[in-house]
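Data card: per-record layout.
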Amino acid sequence: MASTSQTEFSAKDFDQALRALDVEIGKSKNMSKIAPIQLLSAGGFVAVTLFHNRLSTQYIDYIMNPDTPNVNKIKEKLQIAIEAVTRQRSLSTDWINSQMEIFAIGPKKQRLFRDSVTQNVVLWRGANLVIYAAKWEWTLARKFKRIGSERRAIDISDAVEILSRMVQENGGPLALETVKSWDTIVYTPLDMAAIKSVADAYMGQWGVAGIKM
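The structure for this 213-residue chain is written out next.
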């Protein structure tokens, strides 16, 4: 009987897989000499490991620091390390993947990464690898866009958690005009129905406004 690969991961599952990846990175001369390798993540991994509004998710989305020395070579070496862990632990081939790189390119990727490091929300840290949460404004704007097209309850739940963190940091609800200005992040006007659905869900959960509508 063919073995099956793990496709759903809890916070503990991710921790174990990332510990193994940390070891593999340490075996690479190219990566170990510039370690820790810096990644940022958004989506399900943040929900599972930081907000705990999901018990599990299918993969870690990541963007590598574009200022990493010899970044393309390091991306290749990291993929080799990922594939080694995938084989060792019988994981799905995309348990950690860089597909979200398409949403931030060129100077915008550099700015996003620097802002995310400055935000300094560390999702996972080892000797050779550190993963930061992507900047909240960027993450929430992407959530609004997805909610506008898919209306998934789990995305609204994620958005409420992100908004809650931003309200705490802001010292109060966000101005609607501020939220709408994030259309520059997703290159299209944000869906007002999506914003309202998150604002309503936030009000329902916390009893106060998260966005001044």
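Known properties of this structure: The longest helix spans residues 71-89. The first strand starts at residue 37 and ends at 41.

See the next section for split statistics.
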